[in-house]
Structures are given as structure tokens and as C-alpha cells.
Amino acid sequence: MGSMMRRMTGAVPFALLLALTAPAGAATDSPATRGDSAQGAAPTFGHTLPPVGFVRFCGRRPEACAARPAGAVRPVLTARQWELVTRVNDNVNAVVTPASDEQIYGEPEHWDYPVRHGDCEDYALLKQRYLEALGLPRSALLLTVVLDDKQEGHAVLTLATSEGDFILDNRRDGVRRWQDSDYTLLKRQSQADPREWVALAPDPSMRGGTVAVRAAR
What we know:
Elements lengths: L1 H5 L7 H8 L9 H4 L12 E2 L3 H9 L18 H17 L1 E2 L2 H5 L11 E2 L1 H14 L7 E7 L5 E9 L2 E5 L7 E2 L6 E6 L7 E3 L18
Helix pairs in contact: 2-5, 5-7
């Protein structure tokens, strides 16, 4: 983990990552340590096209999309790891100011790591990068496209664990099970290969190639 953390420069505030690793008192119990019953993973429906913004992101940052040798792993999270997950979610939500891709880049869809401002997919990318640097396997950190309650596109990060799938969202603090997210899940990265995407909706007409997102949380 140390070598990866030393490479985390530029868009990622390194001091914040170090602060997240500092003990914060008693660790919050993970679902596994609380003895909660597993509610399972979100069902998948085969391969689908990745979002256009993700494809362009991988073109600019191929190292961020490279497959990892560990394979598809669903970790059993310790209480300490669960605390880091919730702290990363809350802290990224706090330090990044929401703004649309049009406002930041002058184009409708541009995925990247945020510096000070970001759209929903930028929050998800930064959380993914932090949590991998903190030791979670990449196959457990999956960029995900959903529809919100207004039927508008939105992006979140899915945490795939042995206890099921959890959603990290920039619109609210707190990490929730996917069934409690109030979103319609459309597609997400494959656990086997981060460059591939799988459908989370059985209807092919719901699997668009773009994410038309609102900046507001």
C-alpha cells in the first residue's frame, strides 16, 4: 500500500488520504462484525457497453483502468476497513464541491479525478482511488450508473463485499445496501475486468452509453 500512496499526487489531496488512515476512536462495526444477514449482490444480466465518459477516461488514464492480478474478490471487511469506507465516503463528499461537466470542462460528459469541483462520476472515481490505495481490492470497487427518482442519470461507487453490495453516493453521506439506495441500477464495471461493464437492468433499452447527470447532491 505504501508505494501506491506515494504515487497519489496531483488531483488527489495526499494529506487527506493520510488523515483518513489515522485512527478515529472506536471503529464502526462492519456488516460482517455486526452479524447482519447477507442480503446478496445486485443481479447482473450479461455484458453491456461502458459509458462514453468512462471510455474516454481510460484513454487518458489507462493505468486507472488496467486489470489487477487478484481477480474477482469480494472481501470480508473488518471493522477498521468499514470505518475507512465510511470516512472516505464522507470526506470526499465534504471536500469536493459539486459542479457539472459543462461548468468544469465545457463539455457534457467528462470523467476524471476532481481537484476542487466534480460531477457525480468524479466523486466515485476519487473514492475508488482512495479505497484501493487503502488496501481494498479493485474488484470490490465498481463504478456504477443508475437512474435517480427523477429518472435522470447518476453515477455512484458500488462496494462489493461478502455481505453484499453497498452504495457510496455523493448526494448523501452514509453507506447503504444497494436495495436501500432508492435508485434503479443500470450498469457497472465488471469484477473480472474493470474495462468491461455488466448490465444491472434486464431491459436493454435502459442501458445508455452516457451519464446525463445533475451536479446537485
